[in-house]
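The aim of this short unit is practical: by the end, you should be able to scan a pair of folded records and say something sensible about each. We start with the first protein, listed as its amino acid sequence and then its structure tokens.
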Amino acid sequence: MSAVSPLLSQLELLRVSVDGPVAHLRLSRPTKRNAINDQLITEIHTAILNLPGEARAAVISGEGEHFCAGLDLSEVAERNVAEGIVHSRMWHAAFDALQFCRVPVIAVLHGAVVGGGLELATSAHLRVAEPSAFYALPEGQRGIFVGGGGSVRVPRLIGVARMTDMMLTGRVLNAEEGQAVGLSNYLVGEGEGLAKAFELAHKVASNAPLSNFSVIQALPRIADLSRDDGLFLESLMSSIAQGDDAAKERVRAFLEKRAAKVSKS
């Protein structure tokens, strides 16, 4: 394990460590089911913006029995409208920083992935779930509305109709249902999530950095564009990526049979 900067080592509710090219961010409020208060959302934002320079991928997980039970409601009850908007935008800034991080981020999901916890998870680029994971958006039953980007990110994975059902009825999806509708990319055995996430992170970290950056920066933006604009941006990104020296070497390695071909695993 490599040492992290003094700034990251001083965080109180988020533990940051580095394993070679992979940074590990751990939510550390287990007695609160890793519910996100103002301090924790600020620390998440700080960590994402100040990842160690050697990091080429990141893993985010939760200590204890749950990934994240969402917003800490004890900080919400007395906010007025203006304060609520500022608070929501603070979450938006943190999760936008995560989604458009300079490196791919993989979330490990177990136990509660609820409300703001689901918003956090859907900000990551890949999600590995364990059988204990369950997903819910209880804001409708709390008299509130999602405020951490969920109305934008969650429907892109599961559709507006499913999110509407979860918010109106309080429907809870188990790990298998979450995998079936696209909330997770991988479903592994209990206690195997972190190992799988690190396996994926090290694999991703071995890609050309510019290729990874292009995937996580361009794909979500292309999805927001018209067909013609999307195709034009695709041409730009394709040309930039293939012009990179690392990409040229990888193509040469393939042509010279120094790189493995794609095969069924």
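Turning to the second protein, read its sequence before its tokens, just as you did above.
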Amino acid sequence: MKISVKGPIISSNEQWIYDWFGIEATSPKKVSDQLSKLNGEAIDIDINSGGGSVFDASEIYALLKDYQGKKTGKILGLAASAASVIAMAADNLLMAPTAQMMIHNASTRSQGDYRDMDQTSSFLKNVNQTIANAYNLKSGKSYDELLNMMDKETWLTPQQALQHHLIDEIMFEGQGVEMVASADGGMIPQQVIDKIRNELHANPPLNQTAENEQPGGNPTNKENEQEAQQIMNLEELKNTHPELYKQIRNEGYTDGVKAENSRIKAIEDLQMPGNEALINQAKFETNDSAESVAVQIIKAEKARGHNYLQNLQDDAKPINQIPGTSAPEGGGESDSVKATNLGANIAASINKMRGGIR
């Protein structure tokens, strides 16, 4: 069973917002719901998070630490800040050779006089101490050394994390795994290569069968196997096995259409009044993912709300600038004119705020 700790660490009452936008995030309730379905069996905790709320991370750490089954943590990309605290709950913590861990001090925003600042400073130091507790239980390092590393905002490679005993081992070490760093590079996917090999092994070309047959009619299996496993690029595949090439190309096209349709549908589900241009641009021009569009919409709504409040304040300025007058004494004509002008000014200002004729 896998427990996923990915995206920002958030409070449970915010989880539905992230889920609604399709943005990956982790809250205590999300982890608790997954653990409640288990009966003490072993779990893998997959971690790739830049951190978030310290107190929600503390709750997740406690939930995992209290779970009675064996817990194997796997830092797949990043375990930073609050996420590194959660990682410490694993009985056996592994780290991908390409991953990183970061530990640092807690931070917050505060306002007030010097007494408020002193109190906030003391509070943050206490939070740092509680964070260091998790690192201490895992590594056995002294608090002074851990707090010093947090002061410096320490980034750790897998080898460094292992030296500090913050993890137990590095994933894939000694396995001789072939690693590739490429955005595309024209490489044929491994599943396609496997399919080609299986196809050639089951139905070898006629010329290959004839060439490898011995006088007695028995094929040399070793040569057949070597021929079937030769490296082949797409152009050679197209020329030598056109039907297989066509089948693979059609499957790839179908999968691509399905993926693009899913992307567009996910973006259309984010449709909100006032964001039509952004949605259309993402669908047909920028090819942004639904997650990226959701973040853009949130920013746009925030900016729109700020502008709305600013416009209300600007429209209210004429009212604030109207001088006060004394109550009329005799009801003379000049006082009536003043009252009329005052009422007209107020009415015009109110009409302006309502969006009427200016």
